[in-house]
Description:
This protein is α/β, with parallel strands linked by helices. Helices cover 29% and strands 21% of the residues. It has twelve helices and 24 strands. The strands form seven sheets. Strands 15-16-17-14-13-19-20 form a seven-stranded mixed beta sheet, with helices on both faces. A five-stranded parallel beta sheet has the order 10-1-9-11-12, sandwiched between helices. It has a three-stranded mixed beta sheet with strand order 2-6-5, covered by helices on one side. The longest helix has 21 residues, at 130-150. It is globular. Belongs to the aldehyde dehydrogenase family.
Amino acid sequence: MQRVVLFSALRHSALTARVHSVRLLPSAAMSTLLINQPKYAWLKELGLSEDNNGVYNGTWGGTGEVVTSYCPANNEPIARVRQVISLVFFWFLQIPAPKRGEIVRQIGDALRRKIKVLGSLVSLEMGKIYVEGVGEVQEYVDVCDYAVGLSRMIGGPVLPSERPGHALIEQWNPVGLVGIITAFNFPVAVYGWNNAIALICGNVCLWIVAEVLEQNNLPGAICSMTCGGADIGTAIAKDERVDLVSFTGSTHVGKQVALMVQERFGRQLLELGGNNAIIVFEDADLNLVVPSALFASVGTAGQRCTTTRRLMLHESVHDEVVERLAKAYKQVRFGDPWDPSTLYGPLHTKQAVQQYLAAIEQAKQQGGTLVCGGKVMDRPGNYVEPTIFTGLAHDAPIVHTETFVPILYVIKFKTEEEAFAWNNEVKQGLSSSIFTKDMGRVFRWLGPKGSDCGIVNVNIPTSGAEIGGAFGGEKHTGGGRESGSDSWKQYMRRSTCTINYSKDLPLAQGIKFE
């Protein structure tokens, strides 16, 4: 029997909590909450109110501190949520994997019915544009569809035994209790691909599907969610009952989580930072390069772990690409993230705006030339201009720093060897991409002397991964894998089983012990 607890270190999406817990604020009766304004009446379709409980264990509750969720597009309060002050685990019934797959199918259908309003809430609370908010919920739906089929395919091989009358098999069983610590930038998708895959392996942790569970005579208490601060995250990491901790967030915090989990010999699944690069060679199709670099560097206001932060351009195409990309930057439509015509929304918090300004100053001090952007927009909310720098050295400290803001560092290179080396010289190893028509170069890029990242693309940007492949990276990105391929193995434990169905007792390696 496998159990799951969900903890969102920074925020919870509409799928995992009543509202996101963002900032601790003293006043419970500040300016008018958005939830009470007619423009945001759709929030009540999700069962939200002015004050919401942040603990779910079959019913909603909460006895901890009250926090207020703010919209990053205007910094106005959305609603309030009460946190938990203790960690609670609940057990899921041990039912066959295909039956769990049927539950996941129904969860996907439930998400489909609410996809637009849920996407709107992601947009309102996180700040990403509406189409990305809906797309994030769609990613959860897609993972549910994937998991349904996977629920009938999980299994280990039957291996040939060297001993007569013996069978050698692999048996996969649930790993136990899984703690999911999610990040603010993809509150639905990260939780979703953990949950859907973990569920078919024997886990549940999703409150919005309470109706689905009840329709299938499953108690709501099999879903457990807690909402709190670093104390709850630390409790999850240190608790020996939590067999697997899945953490998505910064490398700095990930190191702390990893040390706490490893100290007790627990399992960890880490998806941490990324300092991702696109490399553009002299034979690249620039009509693909420019929109790819634009989306990968500006999309989600630079707040994706797969955001392109380094653009390496061959010296023969450097000036043309910079000119075309700067022109494209200036045409990006910014505004309210829930406006369908908006392509670029705000940063998540005021603190992120300060990080943006600090990075701008560091880039200038280290020799960078500002091509465009570099300022905070004069409007309500946490809006900053998407920014391009040229002229920085490939190993400049700021270039090697992952700043979670829309700043792109353009670097000029001469040879394939130096471009590949520069891609790999940063500490992170999440996503990477080259643009070229040279098939020999493509396979060198994919090979052992090419990219050292977990995601290695050709003629597409670094962001926008599909759910069918394993998602994750190497080095300081943490080494974990989520979503597709054989990522399900992270949520299970493997036993090698030898069965003797003969009347003899031969020993392996021909050993005689008589």
